[in-house]
Amino acid sequence: LHLIKLCNLSCDFCSASRLLHDGKDEKWRDTEADIQKIKRIFKHPLFSKIFLVDLLGGEPLLIKELPKIVSHLSATGRLTNMATNGFRLRQNIEKLKQAGISSINVSIYDENIKLLRRNLKWINNIFRVNASLVLFKTKIKDDQSDIIDLAQFVYDAGCRSLRFFIYRPMDFNPNMDDVVYKNDPDYTQLKSKLNAMFPKFIFWPKLLNSEEMKDQT
């Protein structure tokens, strides 16, 4: 369930932030969620028996009525999972916990890592979250120590898990050199190291071969 198209970050591999900066597309305002829209959606027979709801964006924490939305979905017996960049999570985590949110995933980027190093452990003391990171081939090849350091930070901060995603060239400036394919030796080495350091803590994606990627693009 995409609650809002707007985001407060400008990650170069994501299209959501363009809405914030170019100001050309105002239609996103008509799609922003509120509690009345959510109630109407889940009264529809098509959605009435849905058990798990992923709350996505843009950035869901930009929605003023997010705690009300989570509370309503929880009260009707549904599980709720939210993906967020975490910028507004510290001031909202207690409200979301009280509303009955089931799980939260914090996406880690270069733009929010300093904030998360300050706040993530405190947040996990209130409600333990999961974390995720997009992996780039050039980063895996040239700076594995930085990825390992980040995994150590996430583990020490008390997160439930760390999930890796692989960069996919679906943004405005696709870079095919950053895609990781099956049997990449640097990726295999990184995976072996981290699984040994943090058993059963990290979730790894399924890798595509180069022909499969061509089919997708």
Task: Quickly describe the structure.
The chain is 41% helix and 13% strand.
Describe the structure.
With 217 residues, the chain is α/β, with parallel strands linked by helices. Helix content is 41%, strand content 13%. The protein has 10 helices and 6 strands. A 6-stranded parallel β-sheet has the order 1-2-3-4-5-6. It is globular, with a radius of gyration of 18 Å.
Give the C-alpha Rg.
18 Å
Q: Describe the global form.
A: globular
- DSSP summary, beta strand count: 6
Pick out the low-confidence regions.
Answer: none
How far the N terminus sits from the C terminus, by CA atoms, comes to 25 Å
Q: Helix coverage percent of residues?
A: 40-55%
Secondary structure class reads alpha/beta
Order of helices and strands: HHHEHEHEHEHHEHEH
Number of helices: 10
How much β-strand is present in the residues? Answer: 5-15%
Largest sheet: spatial strand order = 1-2-3-4-5-6
Largest β sheet strand count, sense and barrel closure: 6 strands, parallel
Tell me, rounded to a whole number, the average pLDDT: 88
Layout of strands and helices, then pairs:
Elements (H helix, E strand, L loop, with lengths): L17 H5 L5 H4 L3 H9 L8 E4 L10 H10 L3 E6 L8 H7 L3 E6 L4 H14 L3 E6 L1 H6 L1 H13 L5 E5 L18 H13 L4 E2 L6 H7 L1
Parallel strand pairs: 1-2, 2-3, 3-4, 4-5, 5-6
Q: What are the defining features of this structure?
A:
globular, 10 helices, 13% strand, 217 residues, alpha/beta, six-stranded parallel beta sheet
